[in-house]
Design brief:
The chain has about 325 residues and is α/β, with parallel strands linked by helices. The chain has one domain (about 70-320): TIM Barrel (Alpha-Beta Barrel). Helix content is about 40%, strand content about 15%. Strands 2, 3, 4, 7, 8 and 9 form a six-stranded parallel sheet that branches. Strands 5-6-1-10 form a four-stranded mixed sheet. The radius of gyration is 22 Å and the shape is globular.
């Protein structure tokens, strides 16, 4: 056997292995638009503090009637049907860019699990290509989470109005750009002209802010279950957390998670939690679908699990919670 035969064989074998494994990696991003990419990571995309190109949305929503004001924490579905809404916040401060958890969102899409995504307007601008992808998928409903995550308990009302309306306007701009790219008009007709749901950053509010949000036609939706108890680093931990969440879940629950890669491990937790809830016979709905099925339970104060448990957040995260100092 020639001396070079073994090295040559090994070399060819390695090349074969590379050619078998690399194409799927190399092509995964182009073949599957839902696959995670490096630009989905936190701080991967450049930050800009400028205002959106449009400051007020063209579509204005009618103010909510008095009996629909306040904060929805859960829904009581007729006949206690086993339904729940998964919600994911995509928060972004003025001072940096956050991520987009495509492992998580790709999982929801692959499993056909609907969800409501509450996006900061600035996050929408940073992750415009991702927003276009979600807009075209009927599984996902998009809500407003303020422009740069401003704290509604602290923001002067004029600034609060800007945070909300800049986000509505940014959504419209992306929808309009998408309209120029998709050829099927029936597809565009299915995409809401502007978001109708609002989520309080830090879960914080005050009565005047709730009035402003309602006057702008947006329904404030929080949660009755905090999904993330911290970072999840392995499947065993995800299973334990998921079991604890499942034991708290009741029909009509609204569950809070994040899809901006803060904290880490949410994808694993959601995978385990959804599996458990499906085994219990639960169906997942968007918040708007859930609201159609029963009576919303409202409160007048924003919090995580009990009133006042988020007050300490007022002293962190800079000016009015936007990160600016
Ligand atoms: Zn947030």
């Amino acid at each position: 056997m020639p001396k070079f035969f073994l090295p040559l064989t090994l070399c060819l074998f390695s090349l074969l292995l590379i050619s078998l494994t690399q194409p799927s990696l190399a092509h995964s991003n182009t073949a599957d638009p839902w696959a995670p990419t490096p630009t989905d990571l936190k701080k991967a995309l450049p930050n800009t503090r400028s205002q959106p190109l449009r400051l007020r949305p063209r579509t204005q929503l009618p103010p909510l009637p008095d009996d629909q004001q306040g904060i929805i924490r859960k829904v009581s579905p007729a006949s206690e049907q086993p339904v729940l809404a998964l919600t994911f916040d995509l928060c972004e401060l003025a001072t940096s860019t956050s991520g987009c958890d495509m492992t998580l969102l790709g999982f929801l899409k692959a499993q056909n699990i609907p969800a409501t995504l509450f996006m900061s307007g600035k996050w929408m601008r940073t992750h415009k290509a991702r927003v276009k992808l979600f807009l075209q998928h009927p599984l996902f409903e998009i809500g407003n989470h303020n422009w740069s995550h401003g704290n509604c308990a602290l923001l002067p009302l004029k600034d609060l109005e800007d945070e909300i309306l800049w986000t509505q306007a940014q959504y419209e701009l992306i929808r309009e750009e998408l309209a120029g790219e998709i050829t099927d008009p029936t597809k565009l007709a299915k995409i809401a002209p502007v978001p109708r749901l609002f989520r309080l950053p830090y879960g914080r509010s005050r009565p005047e802010a709730l009035k402003t949000i309602a006057a702008l036609g947006l329904t404030t939706v929080q949660w009755n279950i905090v999904g993330e108890l911290g970072a999840v680093t392995n499947r065993e931990q995800a299973r334990r957390y998921a079991q604890s969440l499942a034991s708290m879940t009741v029909p009509g629950s609204i569950v809070l998670f994040h899809a901006n890669l803060v904290p880490v491990g949410t994808a694993l937790l959601v995978e385990e939690y959804t599996r458990l809830m499906q085994a219990k016979g639960y169906r997942f709905l968007t918040v708007s679908e859930l609201l159609q099925l029963g009576t919303p339970q409202r409160v007048q104060d924003g919090y995580f699990s009990s009133p006042g448990d988020n007050l300490h957040l007022d002293r962190r995260f800079g000016r009015y919670g936007t990160g600016l100092r």
